[in-house]
Design goal:
The chain is an alpha+beta fold. It has one domain (4-242): Jelly Rolls, CATH 2.60.120. It is built from 9 helices and 11 strands. β7 (154-158) and β8 form a beta hairpin.
Length: 247
């Protein structure tokens, strides 16, 4: 496949892959906990509305733009009309529900050599289609770790490369390439997304670019947590070439 990277080139990803069963177990326990209001803890990516017009792509954020979500709320408190203490309690609870997962994330993000930017769960609703789009994140690669992947009509396409997520397997790609996804099953698909700086690029330059993009998105939409969300106003030739029309 031309547009997917070799996961083995990024050795730290093996820590996520080797522990996918415990990560999945903690995730399922969280989703099935009758005492948990799932909607209270997910962040609907309103930045995605420019692509989808519907809220079917949700995230549970653990680590965003080199910080915890709580640190972003605290640093940009003027942007949010929220009770910081309640936010702290919410994220303390999330981390308590994912003790082993959070331990892995803490250990891997403690080393700047890994270059991890974001770690979050991506919840894709049944019947969802994510239109062809590109992300404005030229400083990073993105990894998908399959956790809950239903059988049926489900897929992910980057340019010409078409794949299906597999539980316990990692896909690495460049999010500035046109990509699209769908879940036309009756069950949700959940993956872990790990974003990290391109190791073959100048790290200082990439960090500066990441910070510029983060600040730009925070001004546009603080609830995006600074993530670009992608855009779909691609030229007709690109859409014709890479869009999946028959799914």
């Amino acid at each position: 496949m031309r547009y997917f990277k070799n996961e083995q080139d990024f050795t730290f990803l093996s820590s996520f892959k080797d522990n996918y069963k415990v990560i999945t177990e903690e995730l399922i326990n969280f989703l099935n906990n009758p005492n948990v209001d799932f909607q209270k803890f997910v962040q609907t990516s309103s930045a995605q509305n420019s692509i989808n017009k519907v809220d079917f792509w949700k995230i549970i954020a653990l680590y965003i733009h080199l910080k915890t979500p709580l640190e972003i709320f605290q640093e940009y408190s003027d942007f949010y009309q929220v009770n910081i203490e309640q936010v702290k309690q919410a994220y303390d609870y999330i981390y308590s529900q994912f003790p082993q997962t959070w331990k892995i994330v803490r250990e891997l993000t403690a080393s700047q050599d890994n270059g991890i930017i974001n770690v979050f769960f991506s919840y894709f609703e049944p019947g969802a289609k994510l239109n062809l789009h590109v992300n404005d994140d030229p400083y990073m690669y993105r990894a998908h770790l399959g956790l809950i992947v239903p059988e049926g009509n489900i897929g992910f396409k980057v340019c010409d490369d078409l794949v299906k997520w597999q539980e316990g397997e990692v896909l690495v790609f460049t999010p500035t390439n046109p990509h699209t996804a769908w879940n036309l099953t009756k069950h949700p698909r959940v993956i872990m997304i790990i974003d990290f700086f391109k190791p073959d690029a100048d790290r200082a330059e990439m960090k500066q670019l990441e910070r510029q993009q983060f600040e730009k998105m925070m001004l546009i939409n603080p609830w995006s947590f600074g993530m670009s969300g992608g855009y779909s106003d691609l030229d007709p030739e690109t859409i014709k070439k890479y869009a999946v029309l028959d799914i």
